[in-house]
Amino acid sequence: MVPVFLISCPLHSFGPWVQWFLPLGWGGAFRSEWACACPPPGIGCDDYLGSDKVADKCGICGGDNTGCKVVSGVFKHTLTNLGYHKIVEIPEGAIKINITEMSKSNNYLALRSRSGRSIINGNWAIDRPGRYEGGGTTFTYKRPNEISSTAGESFLADGPTDEILDVYMIHQQPNPGILYEYIIPEANIISPQLPPHRRPGEPFNGQLELTDGTDHEDENLQRETDTHTGQSTGTFPVIQPGRFPSHQPDNQVPAVQPPRRNREHNWKQVGTTECTTSCGKGLRYPIFHCVNRISHEEVSESYCDTSTKPTPEEEACNIFPCPAFWDIGEWSECSKTCGLGMQHRQVLCRQVYANRTLMVQQYRCHHLEKPETTSTCQLKICSEWQIQTEWTSCSVPCGVGQRTRDVKCVSNLGDIVDDEECNMKLRPNDIENCDMGPCAKSWFLTEWSDRCSAECGAGFRTRSVVCMTNHVSSLPLEGCGNNRPSETIPCDNGPCVGKVEWFAGSWSQCSIECSSGTQQREVICIRKMEGSFDVLNPYECSFLERPPSQQPCYLKPCGAKWFNTEWSTCSKSCEGGFRVREVRCLSDDLTPSNQCDPQLKPEEKEPCNTQDCIPEIDENCKDKYYNCNVVVQARLCVYTYYKTACCASCTKVANRQSGFLGRR
Q1: Which residue in 443, 466, 566, 595 has the fewest CB atoms around it within 10 Å?
Q2: Paired strand residues for 298
């Protein structure tokens, strides 16, 4: 029969306690266990059951938020230079640290200690989001997805810090604002005292504290963090069985332990658990089973006293480093909103050791192919400029005017869209100047005909003369002035001989090579003699009908011919200038044409006055000294005294230099 004792529960348990006496083996001994027969109440921050106390923002159990100072602000300074800029200083002992970028940007937050050690994003290397240890605390670095989120970067840490830390911003674009906040506890609560009812080694606010009797092995244990996943995988010191006396009710009857020599079963280590990692320093724990002391045969754990079962202690395993690997960051936004652009991502060589992901030299990843850090991207096809019409006619008949055409921005679907959709730097011109030539009136001339109107004796050659403006219209002769160039010029092919009769020579060629003209022939009075004839005065043949000496002729339509103006005045009087004239191709009706032979086009520009210029001699400009050549060689002519004393030599050199510069 199992005896049961009932006692009242503690003040905050709201029910009775029940004490059970259970048989221990077959020796008639019992062990006791206490249990509360009511539902377990809540535990406050003061470790009392049923307490409703909570920690305030200063971390004080049951506090009223007056035991600390909250420091907060927004860094909105306008920055101009690219690179690292200090934002705020986090003092030693700060807790509840929050550094947050107010909106997404291409800037980065950075953190380093006062000693200069980089904690996050140092030395122009951007770290991946995760957890990073520094300043005696662990910072959680967050960088939201660069495409789908508008939130900025942030650093968060519970603290307290054990040194001064500096927060920086890697400035690359306008500062969107950096919110910073941290709490500074008062000096008397930085190291709070233990509550009176706590015993050494018991938890306080979820933390475990060690007393002076703690083994040094436990003190050296360090909490380690995986910077890639942000999950805590470290260990904390644990209380070893029997190190501190158990907390038992005052009226509890201690269990009677049987003598060790009477035990038939005990705990034995039969192996270990598998290592938590295959490389990079993992953990494993010993496995204890209940066995027969004599046969060492495994039996049910109920045969062994669970209170004597050894607590498994962790041990390191697979401490060799893991192979290095390429850590691939997220792609940046495309550099262009349309068309072919570029995007970048960070590729770092990392290696896992002791549950921490460390950045190492890139040669450690040479056994792996490095992923691309840049890639082309295209969000959409850009719109493009299209020329809708040809150029219009010039706005003026002569002189300088303008002409236009339609230029539109067209999307890839063929729709006309706003000009802002296209690249304004590549927009074709839709208006330009046009030069229709000078508006002045001029005489236009053809070349002289090649043949004389008479085969012998006096005759003449002809040419065409036209007065025109730039838009090629026939004008009255006074339109170009009274100095009309001559249309004929005399010619003589030598004397003619004959007999007393009218002798008519052959008709000459037509006075012009095309269109309507005249033909000439010589009609003379001659006296024929045997083998020769003499030319007589015309009255000697007056009794004879005189043949006509001129008749009209028409060969063919002229078509297009070259017309040109007179040469202009030479641009220089010496040392080579040029003169110009205007040349036009005109058809039979004196309208512009493009049917003229380009090889026969008269020259529009030619050199003139190529002779050297002769400087004027100034009788008052003479050399006063025989050695003025030395003054010239020493380049002293720039001084007034030497320029006057050696006037001729200095002037000669100046004219030579100006002529050289002009020829260049």
Answers
A1: 595
A2: 291
CB 293 within 8 A of CB 265: yes
Q: Mapping DSSP to helix (H, G, I), strand (E, B) and coil, where does residue 490 land?
A: strand
Burial of residue 168 (number of CB atoms within 10 Å: 0-12, 13-18, 19+): buried
- Residue-wise pLDDT tens digits, 617-646: 677 888 888 889 888 888 889 888 888 899
Q: What are phi and psi of 620, to 5 degrees?
A: -85, -10
Which pTM does this prediction carry? 0.29
Question: For the segment 44-91, what is each residue's pLDDT rounded down to a tens digit?
Answer: 776 665 678 888 777 778 888 888 889 999 999 888 888 889 999 999
**Residues 493 and 452: beta-carbon distance below 8 Å:** yes
Nearest to 349 by CA among 327, 331, 366: 327
Q: How far is CA 468 from CA 401, 580, 584, in A?
A: 20, 18, 10
Q: What sign does the dihedral 503-506-512-514 (CA atoms) show?
A: positive
Exposed e or buried b per residue across 254-284, where buried means at least 16 C-beta atoms within 10 angstroms of its C-beta:
eeeeeeeeeeebbbbeeeeeebebeebbbbb
pLDDT of residue 658: 63
CA 352 to CA 226: how far, in whole Å? Answer: 9
Residue-wise pLDDT for 331-362, tens only, equals 888 888 777 889 999 999 988 877 778 888 88
Phi, psi of 371 (to 5 degrees): -65, 155
Are 455 and 549 within 8 A, CB to CB? no
DSSP for 7-36 reads EEPPTTT-SEEEEEEEEETTTTEEEEEEEE
Distance CA 578, CA 15 (A): 124
Q: Is the peptide bond before 160 cis (omega within 30 degrees of 0)?
A: yes
636's tokens: 């002293």
User: How does DSSP classify residue 274?
Assistant: P
For 379-430, what is each residue's pLDDT tens digit? Answer: 777 888 999 999 999 888 777 889 999 999 998 888 888 888 888 888 999 9
